């Protein structure tokens, strides 16, 4: 929640509702892509060529699949929380908890995206080149999703 950003005509309840709706809109965007990535990853294990892959590829795949599953769980958890807690006047807690779940889900999404890219690039590039490229992809995500918002927040 941005400090200093308040609407004069907005009650605290209306502000909570607005924050809740903003979080839900953000989650709708990221949930679909994360679920598609997870489904794609599930299919890889059933490809004939995958069985011939080495231990490194299998380990990267396992970690990537688990990270994607954890991301899906974290990004869908607010739905379950809302269903269980609906009508209990806990919107203030739901907004705070959902924000933290979304942040954790995004972190696991970065891990799973990088793992998926590494699995694909390991096929078309040398392993060192694939790892270096994924390092660049990771840096890109960290820059856009963490460093840039942190810079903007502190610049304010």
UniProtKB/TrEMBL annotation:
Keywords: Membrane, Transmembrane, Transmembrane helix. The chain crosses the membrane at residues 27-46, 58-81, 101-123, 129-148. The keyword Transmembrane helix applies. Signal peptide: none annotated. This is Sodium:proton antiporter. It comes from Kribbella speibonae.
């Amino acid at each position: 929640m941005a400090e200093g950003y308040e609407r004069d005509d907005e009650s605290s309840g209306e502000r909570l509702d607005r924050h809740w709706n903003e979080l839900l809109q953000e989650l709708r965007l990221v949930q679909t892509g994360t679920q598609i990535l997870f489904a794609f990853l599930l299919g890889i294990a059933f490809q004939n060529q995958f069985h011939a892959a080495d231990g490194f590829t299998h380990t990267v795949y396992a970690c990537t699949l688990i990270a994607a599953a954890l991301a899906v769980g974290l990004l869908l958890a607010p739905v379950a929380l809302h269903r269980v807690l609906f009508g209990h006047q806990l919107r203030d807690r739901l907004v705070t908890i959902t924000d933290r779940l979304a942040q954790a889900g995004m972190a696991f999404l970065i891990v799973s995206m990088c793992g998926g890219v590494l699995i694909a690039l390991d096929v078309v590039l040398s392993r060192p080149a694939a790892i270096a490229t994924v390092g660049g992809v990771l840096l890109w995500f960290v820059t856009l999703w963490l460093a840039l918002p942190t810079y903007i927040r502190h610049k304010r």
